[in-house]
Design brief:
Blueprint (H helix, E strand, L loop, with lengths): L13 H13 L13 H14 L4 H9 L5 H7 L3 H4 L2 H6 L4 H13 L1 H11 L3 H12 L8 E2 H10 L4 H16 L9 E2 L12 H7 L15 H14 L9 E5 L14 E3 H6 L3 E2 L11 E5 L8 E4 L1 H9 L3 H14 L6 H5 L9 H13 L13 H13 L10 H25 L1
Antiparallel strand pairs: 1-2, 3-5, 3-7, 4-6, 6-7
Helix pairs in contact: 1-11, 2-3, 7-9, 8-13, 9-16, 10-11, 12-13, 15-16
Amino acid sequence: MKSSPAFVKQIGSFFQVRKFIFIATFIPFITNATIADENFNQCKINLAERAKTAGFSPYITKTVIDNISPIKRVISLDKKQPEFTQTFEQYIKSRVTNYHVRVGREKLKQNKELFDKLEKEYGIPRQYLVSFWGLETVFGKHKGKMSVLNSLATLACDQRRSEFFTLELLNLFTLIEGEQVSVDQLQGSWAGAMGHMQFMPTAFLKYAVDGDNDGKVDIWQSEVDALTTAANYLNQIGWQSKERWGREIKLPKNFAFNKVEFDKYYPLNYFQQLGVQQTNQQALPSYDIQAELYLPSGHKGPAFLLYPNFNVIMTWNLSKSYALSVGALANKLVGANGIEFLTKEKSNVQPYSVVAMKNLQSQLNSLGFETGEPDGIWGPKSRHAIRSFQLQHQLIADGYPNAEVFSTIKTVVTNAKLITQDNNQESS
């Protein structure tokens, strides 16, 4: 949906747009370059050289970069993100709370005129905007107090995701040099996200909108600017206005897990044929849409069908637990149910640690079930590898690292070692 020129004032002078395009086109030629260095002072030198090559002024390459300092706590926070350290039940219950629902509904009433306008201009249902707002900053209460410059520089100097955060830093320099933001106002999260809706610099640069028409974009103080920018962002990255994010569903007993791969889309009627129902045990709708089965806690927990808009939510935050929280809170804000499974049943799913998951990934790799470099994260490769292992050993193939998987693989690995030892003894 296109926005009217009178209402939308996209951020950016000619200089700013030119600089962003320059960086975007220049970077692919140096994608192997990295500023990361254990010595922060050397990293700053690398950053200054990178910024100079990208065409920034001495104000950036000298003054701004010279004043950057590391924040040690940022690295520890990066390694302990709740998406990877909490069970799904723990994660969602701490975010989709009665407080979020109550205050979110108040915000819907208080800003009705604004949301009417945003829905008309951008096609984003209001409950999703408020859901993002509540989950990101509890409606502006917790916008973050860390230096965005120092946080981004700390992460850019760390090897793990250096290139990503270096690009965010370069785009923040563009905002500073174009006088769209001032260094003094740059406070946000440990990961460099800013304002009511926690935009990264690149998202701010590409999608920011002067919603209140005061001649500037202030995502820290202006709720209108922040929410309008969020609506523009979701619209531009592909939100389908007439579709929902997905739905909670009920799997039949003895569901044919072997017929469904995870992280893969199928026509909705395919799930109908497999006996999947709505939570009220009614048949699934018959409209034409692609859907993905997702079991955040395995077959013992809630089950969901995810529609294309779910991937749009994940563009905002690449975590399925987060995206499910957005969907669940949005539902509750307009009077629908949250996640019914969690209100009716107590999950028997035992949490696993990052260390245990890394060990499992290593064991799966050793048996030929490829998970990639062990990182302790239950991602697509790990789901695929676990599912393949489960199918081979006649376990319920839900792709989840449950107790049965851990115990079975321990036995398999132990037996494999004994066989190897016996063979070595026979050959010696």
